[in-house]
Amino acid sequence: MSETTSINEGKKPPLNGRRALPSNNSNEEENEVPEMEAFGLIPRGFNPKDYLRVVDIHMFKEPYETNKQQHHTDKYYNPKLIVRRGQPFQIQIDFNRPYKPETDQFWLEYLIGRYPQQNKGTYIPILVGDVLKPGEWGAKITRKENNSIHLSIMSSANCIIGKFRLYVAVWTPFGILRTRRNPATDTYILFNPWCQQDAVYLDDEKEREEYVLNDVGIVFHGNISDIKLRSWSYGQFEENVLDACLFLMDKAELELFGRGNPIKICRVASAVINSRDDNGVIAGSWDNTYTYGVAPSAWTGSVDILLEYYSSKQPVRYGQCWVFAGVFNTFLRCLGIPARLITNYSSAHDNNANLQLDFFLDDEGKVDTKITKDSVWNYHCWNEAWMTRPDLPVGFGGWQVVDATPQETSDGMYRCGPTSVQAIKHGHVCFQFDAPFVYAEVNSDIVYSRKERNGAQVVEKIDTNHIGQLIVTKEVGGDGMLDITEEYKFQEGSEEERLALETAVMYGVKKQTTQDAAYQPQRDVDMDFQVQKAILGSDFKVTVTFRNKSGNYYTATTYLSGNIVFYTGVTKNEFKKRSFSAKLDPFSSSAFDVVVKSNEYLSDLLDQASFHFFVTARINETGKILAMQKATVLEIPALRIKTQGETVVGKEMSVTVEFTNPLRQTLENVTLRLEGPGLLRTVKKEFRQIPMNSTLVWEVKFTPKRPGLRKLIASLNCDALRHVYGELNVQIQK
């Protein structure tokens, strides 16, 4: 037995009685392809050199050459050919002599994975023909000169997404001669939103430039009454990011033949981007302790996270919802699926999917945190991906919600989506995947109830408008905010909204009716409260207002509770309690101020500087209870970024990042990060201390490689202060 056969013997896969070949779910693995495949015994005088032989293959893979230009892949920092499916690309083959179509016969072979099979789309032989049919594999000769031919190759509009190996095979009477394995001819094939037959086809060029080709985005955070925004670097074109994204599909063990289907890719990616149950990309942490990792607020983009995971194969610590959504957006745009990052303000996390969040009050009208399990997130970020849904009835294609933040399990794993936004709007929550959960996130009611001494539940108030008040994404072609609430729900209180709700209930979303709990709302007194906008480290006030619409004199025993909360609405502790009695004159309004001092909250503040106020009031004369809650976020000072001198490709330039400490304490162990897609990979610097009121200045020098409008993004992070960001648009000249 010769050396070579024993090597191959050793590589035989373990057999399994159910299938002839093992599952083919790795793009990385390869099989060995013979250079000479004999038809039988080879006669003595046979010399392969007498036949047509391939000398060289030119892939035209430079960013400035026609393939990458026409396929919109010229921004990828990758030396290999990258094309989009369903659209022709060009290669040139040099032979050892002129090609004679009458007698010479050759064909191309594209292979992917370790066990290529023609019926699975993992082995693709392409014969040379006279015409290219749109959206089907084929090749035709466009030019012949001397020993060379130019070929135009069309890939199928639904072929597998990934990295293919290319061989050229030549027929001889005694066997097939193939080119050697040559990694330089490897070809990446991606989704094609420019191709009408592709499932991800998007017909608006401005939208394609935004949702596929833009490598920076905006994350909207804060809360409904104080919207904040920060930039996020997606960096889908940066070096090795494409390979890292393909590796995620290997990690998720998605069969190669399923990788042409955006629905399947989104579903497995939503599971593999979080580390729960599959050791995926990012470990989540919501408890304000980030030892042995990076605080979620410190990341400025996806590239560091994806590349660290690609090299270490271990979950990267730590993320929260916008980090999961930012990385997911990079993954989708990198593969060519149009995608955008969404923020839902006042997002319901409903533990039992009954379309209502239950807040239980105790005798004093305070929320009983022991038995209240549901929570309202100040905001929650997820993604939308654009695709057709042939698995659903007509009309449910377009934007699909996908969410990689681990909240609840779906089919046994932490994942969510894709679920049709259109189906959510109309209440058709019977269509896969996870529609009831997403419907609840944007449509739940908040029900305040109290247990009487005899054990009866009394519903004190139902708030139908608090959840999903505003759903936004970045506008196309700018940094502004686009309100897309209407894509998820009809106008609150409209006939259509009622109908959508009834439809959702019919399709199995649980909704308890309030009639059974003898609910009579308080009609003759209105209560509201306002929280003054405040800068971190300063005092501010909360103003409670009552409007007595009746002719009666009332007194209201009022309780204000100020809590420091995670942005997920989970309380860490109560830092402010205040009870007072309010006299309410007939037909009049009265206002009461409660002052909050900075020393009451600073020691316990969490990284999103987020407060949650509950105000409950009992009208003593009628026994009725008024209840209201609001979240508020402190203003956090920003980083200032400046550039010095010229900003020209190939010339060193200098950037300074400045920050003034606003707190009445010294900041310790401060980390600064700066990155800019297409400008510079993330740089970090640690500062031991920043005394109060002092200013830190950090200078970074680098040489820009590409012209155009670029964005620099910086973050500052330490235990006492997080979510400090800064950004700057920079025009790099040629």
UniProtKB/TrEMBL annotation:
Cofactor: Ca(2+)
One GO term of the biological process aspect: blood coagulation, fibrin clot formation
Subcellular location(s) per record: Cytoplasm; Secreted
Enzyme class of the recorded protein, top EC level: transferase
Enzyme Commission (EC) number: 2.3.2.13
Entry superkingdom: Eukaryota
Active site: 321, 380, 403
Self-association and partners: Tetramer of two A chains (F13A1) and two B (F13B) chains.
Function: Factor XIII is activated by thrombin and calcium ion to a transglutaminase that catalyzes the formation of gamma-glutamyl-epsilon-lysine cross-links between fibrin chains, thus stabilizing the fibrin clot. Also cross-link alpha-2-plasmin inhibitor, or fibronectin, to the alpha chains of fibrin.
The protein's name in its UniProt record: Coagulation factor XIII A chain
Species assigned in the record: Cuculus canorus
